[in-house]
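Ticket opened by: R.M.
Priority: normal
Category: complex prediction / small molecule

The reporter submitted a protein together with NAP and asked that the result be attached to this ticket for the collaborator who will pick it up next week. Submitted input follows.
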Amino acid sequence: MRYALVTGGSRGIGRAICVKLAQMGYHLLINYASNDSEAEATLRMVRQMGQDGELMKFDVSDRKTVTATLEAWMETHPDEYIEVLVNNAGIRRDNLMVFMPEEDWSRVLDISLNGFYNVTQPLLQPMLVHKFGRIISLASVSGMKGLPGQANYSAAKGGIIAATKALAQEVARKNVTVNAIAPGFIKTDMVEGLDEAALKKTIPANRFGTPEEVAELAGFLASPAAAYITGNVIAIDGGLYT
Ligand code: NAP
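Result attached by the on-call engineer:
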């Protein structure tokens, strides 16, 4: 069996990526933080693709639990490894810096950026040993451009982009590719409450993207066809940031 782990797989972009990777023949490890019923729904969708999967509930910012969970999985699967990792879990807590509580700064960085370290680090060695791996992380236009009201989120996503570029160079010789996807506005719970009608006027494509469109890109980056793409950030934003 070929295994893929998607963090934040219970909803939105993560769920669509789980379905896409199942379509590609992967056994899915579906991580999420708290939403059991939505995670179960993702698992049902994976099964509808003719694959199986399992739920892996942990907070990506909790390093001890992440390490313990992944080590326990590796112990029970001594001859197998997770060959595709999608670092997708993320939150936003927008505020102008002048009003931003320390907790909102830290929580966003803890989940997006420290989560990248916590989950990627333990899975890296098996990928190197097997000489194949795909690490795909969800960044954002906010991490490339910097957006007002999102200093915390822009810092986290910019950090992911820099870490992606650095790590890609460390592991390229072992056929492990490391890339980031930078979405613009994608229709998920995360953009709920935003003024879509007003915002879409700023997007050349004149619409928000769908999770499935992002999942297609993730699927391509996970595929053997993308073997020579590494250390890259690929925007999927309808022309928003050009
Ligand atoms: P979403 O609909 O809000 O879903 C977030 C997912 O992350 C959920 O599955 C959630 O699990 C999980 N999650 C949150 N905190 C977690 C934690 N501490 N540990 C483990 N899982 C956690 O978000 P989305 O819009 O699909 O976004 C997915 C990724 O794309 C994020 O990194 C986001 O920053 C990035 N992105 C999104 C957009 C956009 O427009 N939507 C644009 C640019 C970048 P529960 O269900 O258990 O809460």
